[in-house]
Amino acid sequence: MTGPPATVPVPHDSAATARDAANARALARLTGARPVLETIAPAREVVPGMTARTILVSGPPMPWRDYTGGQRRAVIGAVRHEGLARDEGEADALLGDGTIEVRPSHDHATVGSLTGVCSASMPVVVVRDEASGRRAFCRMNEGADPASLTFGVWDSGVGSRLRHVCEVVSPALAEVLEHLGGLPLAPIVRRALAMGDDLHSRHRAAGALLRATLLDAVLELSRDRVAERHRHLAAYLRTADYLFLHLVMAAAKAAADSASGIPGSTLVTAMNLNEKEFGLRVSGLGDRWFTAPLPPVSTLRGRLHDGLTTDDLAYVGGESLITETVGLGGMAAAAAMPLQDHSAGSPPEMLRLTERMYRITLAEHPEYRIPALAHRGVPCGIDVLRVAETGIVPAVHLGATLRGGGHAGAVLFRPPLEPFRRAARSLAASPPTPSA
Question: Is the pTM of this model over 0.90?
Fold first, then answer.
């Protein structure tokens, strides 16, 4: 995946100075974020531009006719969940003629795990960056079952679990968060990194810390007797392995959005994939997507469930790569030794993986630190120019999914290099001015 170095013109000194100033601004916003989980609410009530006939999905924009796998199944499931179609055929027709619109999550301040599918009634976590005032959103997962919209599955069981989360779990969780007055997330991320999480593929420590805080609040609310809705919430928290992932995704999205749109900045502000393409955005290039076809699933390496091979896998999309943009996930592999078989393969290789990431980033995060590297800050602020010049692509810890839908394990994903090179060439073609 490295290839020869990209041909990127060396900028004039004044342009380089302007670029460094732009990156300093972007980095200050990215690393200075103070994310707080405010509440849980139906997407239609909080997500900008959400309508009753909008379905949000992961990845760069793609015409409906090009969706063929897990994302397609999940979108049709969301249409059925909303009562917009009686069957798959009617849903397909409404999606095909634009009556129901499929939109990229990122354009609505939202991110979603794997398929990323979110519709109007589905509950989303609402995370606010207190430093910038930005809010970002991520759909709550319907539970621990590997059969879910997240993993490209739609059936009656998925529908039932979705309704339970919508009608029972999310209102109870919103009540708890109101009692707490919001929940700061950065302290949990800091502690979890020290306890073996990467905050993308592994969030076991973060999940335990979150559950302890929320259940303490439940007891305070319940006083003498735990209410039935709180029992359902507690049961959900015991098995919702991906809940904290969705919180940190929204936190990363809010931070990255605050660092977006700075002329001349070379900082990567988004990475994602749909069923067929990888895409990225760069701060100085605004909302433009730079895309390339996904590498074959045969290139994925990691740990799959017993009896599975890469022949059983398929891409279904993914927005959780937003965690890597703030230095978590595969960028912080050295913090998560329990993931060695899911990632680089051994402790020394995990250390080397993260050490390589310092070569393509602009800074070390001042708060998120890695004990195994003498408490260095995680490599933060992916620099599209450095990626293009070195041929080193960001390391991504990614969930693996089956061709027919369902969770298959976890893998190390290496994005294609070409989008980084094209973005670098675009930046070089219009260098910033000192006043930018």
Answer: yes
